[in-house]
Amino acid sequence: MGHIGLTPQSLAQLGGFKAQGRTAEAALKLVEDAKAIEQAGASLLLVEAVPPAVLSAITKAVKIPVISLGAGDDAAGQLLIVHDILGFFDRFVPKFVKKYANLNQTILEGISQYVQEVKSGQFPDEEHVYGMSEEEKAKLLQLLGN
Fold this sequence. Notes:
The protein has helices spanning 11-14, 24-39, 52-61, 82-85, 104-120, 134-143; strands at 2-5, 45-48, 66-69, 77-78.
């Protein structure tokens, strides 16, 4: 699988979370990169954060399936990150993400309750651990030499 456009591992070189291919020259480079990736043997191409016209040019230039991540609808499929669309984070969300829920507060409350219960010794309790018969416990202690 190939990945072009905004690649998170290259954020420092790309100037942060910014759309790619917004000039004709930059778009042409992405089309050429897509062809090279296909030629190298990729069976799928993920195109992230480019204008729809660039996605269309890439889709027309290659024979492999193209998946869009914030690049328009002229693709074999769409991809968004579940953490983004369900609102796990309350700060940064890419422009191309549509939030379908806001779970941030629910997640924070759940994690806070878990931490509190672990610190207080309330969790784990008998309901959330596996039992062992008294006879087997005694055998284990004997085997351990206790």
